[in-house]
Design a protein that fits this description.
It contains five helices and five strands, in the order αβββββαααα. By secondary structure, it is mostly helical. The protein is elongated.
Length: 157
């Protein structure tokens, strides 16, 4: 018998799909398919039964914790860059970090084309080396990829 505040099995499956989680029965854990590497989270049990509501809340809390950790790491990196700029100002400003909107998308598309002409593919590290912040890349990559395809082939992928 289910706990009165617990989700039904059908509602739990629907919530898992809605939020991008997948139950890996062989491991007995849940994977977050919206995050690179599909990090695993243990289910919350009540005795020998799965507490569906608490498990869903734990999955969402784990996703939020990972997002908060990534944001904190980005803030630390930005603070390092700010401190480094105070100690030793760069000879030339990093033009890409100040770009926003359409100019950022256009420059990112140009960088994608440049990198793919010299190597097989583009990795996040390649774009960071060119002066992009990770948050900028994640924000504009889809539009820039479409623009780059359009510039190269005339047809977006």
């Amino acid at each position: 018998m289910q706990h009165p505040t617990d989700l039904t099995a059908a509602a739990f499956d629907q919530q898992l799909k809605l939020h991008g989680f997948f139950h890996i029965r062989a491991e007995g854990r849940f994977a977050d398919v919206r995050v690179k590497g599909c990090p695993r989270t243990e289910p919350v049990m009540r005795g020998r039964r799965l507490n569906r509501q608490a498990t869903l809340e734990a999955l969402l809390a784990a996703r939020k914790a990972r997002a908060d950790a990534a944001a904190a790491a980005e803030a630390v990196q930005m603070e390092r860059e700010r401190t480094a700029a105070l100690i030793a100002p760069p000879v030339m400003p990093a033009a890409r970090t100040t770009l926003e909107g359409a100019p950022a998308i256009a420059q990112l598309a140009t960088d994608l084309i440049d990198i793919t002409t010299t190597s097989e593919g583009v990795a996040l590290v390649d774009l960071v080396r060119k002066g992009w912040r990770r948050s900028q890349v994640f924000e504009h990559i889809d539009a820039a990829r479409t623009l780059a395809y359009t510039r190269q082939d005339g047809v977006p992928a």
